[in-house]
Amino acid sequence: MMINWKKAVGLTAAVAMLVPMAACGGNDNAASGTGSSSGSNESQEATLTVWGPEQDQDWLKAMEEAFEKANPNYKVTWKNATVSEGDAAKTVQTDPSAAADVYMFANDQLGTLQNLNAIGEVSEDVAQQVKDQNAETLVQSVTGTDGKIYGVPYTGNTYFMYYNKDKFSEEDVKNLDTMLEKGKVAYPLSDSWYIPAFYLGAGMTMFGANGTDAAAGIKFGDNADAVTKYLVDMVANPNFTNDENNAGLSMLTEGSVDAYFSGSWDSADLKKKLGDKLGAAEMPAFKVDGKNYTMKSFAGSKAVAFNPNTKAPEVASKFAAYLGSEEAQTKHWEMRQIIPSDKNLTDLDGMADDPAVKAQAATLEKTSVVQPTIAAMNAWWTPAETFGKALVSKDVNADNYQQKTQDWADSVAKDVKAQS
């Protein structure tokens, strides 16, 4: 999930207390810090602080034990702390040299982490691991503007559609307009990570073809006004509900809506509550000015990185690579149903019956664009959230949607210029 940059202006005292002085342990003799998978066979002691979300703490402990068994020459003192993938960059920025040695992060933070000198380039061996395991979209998600790879993906990070199969057929869910006629749909329109799906589908571009050209800026395209008018009409539709704070999950399970949009992180809960009634599909089409377009979600990854400021670079880089390994991804699926990014892991127990697995794969392949990771992307989040909220509150309406769209585009362009 994307990081909320408008809140990333500093840390509270409580969060500051969470950030241990990580990079202060170890007698690691390796100095490359490039994720070398060879390293020395001599016994080495290291203290590693590892950041991950609360839900992954048991998995991290299991992987730390497995890593030590696989590398008996490493004597590691582990210091785990709870920091979500979406909060990694804002937690790092207080003091990159004192941040975790190894951390999990959402790839949209890559540009900021690079600017902070808080993320290490992987070695050639690990870069090959990343390429062998992942589809090109996910490889690009951890590739910097310099063409080098930073971080090892362990799952895709995108969103798609969940629905109740008792309400919608597989044909119905191909088109959003059909769905809004037949049932109730929740969508997080006021969330700046989700609102661009309509505009991207109708021709918006962000920072060039690869999302790395800051000078290219964000181009709303010729259809932006028409898309806004479509969203004005959608908000007025009684079958539409704005999904705030992931309320869509409970609304779908309780039956107050028949479909909502989220990612693989909700799959396990939904399967428990809906069972065979749960369906999932890639992004649907919608019609603007008589022409069908397909919604396109942001695509990225959740990945593991090591901090180049660590005093234990060999161990840290090797452990980061291990957390993205086939073994670790398999265990992640078994423990938490986290869908592997490893394209070779397609037949793990339960995957064939998991609707989110197929939907995420189709989304990454067909109905998504790589989310830009450059720092200039920070210019998008606040204006997009503000515009989405204005749509939901009907401050953007049929009388003013053209001017409001232009004002939004101008605001984004101004912020992009300031960021570049």
TrEMBL record:
Q: Which Pfam families match?
A: SBP_bac_8
Q: Which organism is it from?
A: Bifidobacterium cuniculi
Assigned protein family: Belongs to the bacterial solute-binding protein 1 family.
Q: Which residues form a coiled coil?
A: none
Keywords attached to this entry: Signal, Transport
Q: Name one GO cellular component term.
A: ATP-binding cassette (ABC) transporter complex, substrate-binding subunit-containing
Which positions make up the signal peptide? 1-22
Q: Which GO terms describe its biological process?
A: maltodextrin transmembrane transport; maltose transport
Which InterPro entries does the entry link to?
A: SBP (IPR006059)
Top-rank taxon of the source lineage equals: Bacteria
Q: What is this protein called?
A: Sugar-binding secreted protein
Which Gene Ontology MF annotations are present?
maltose binding
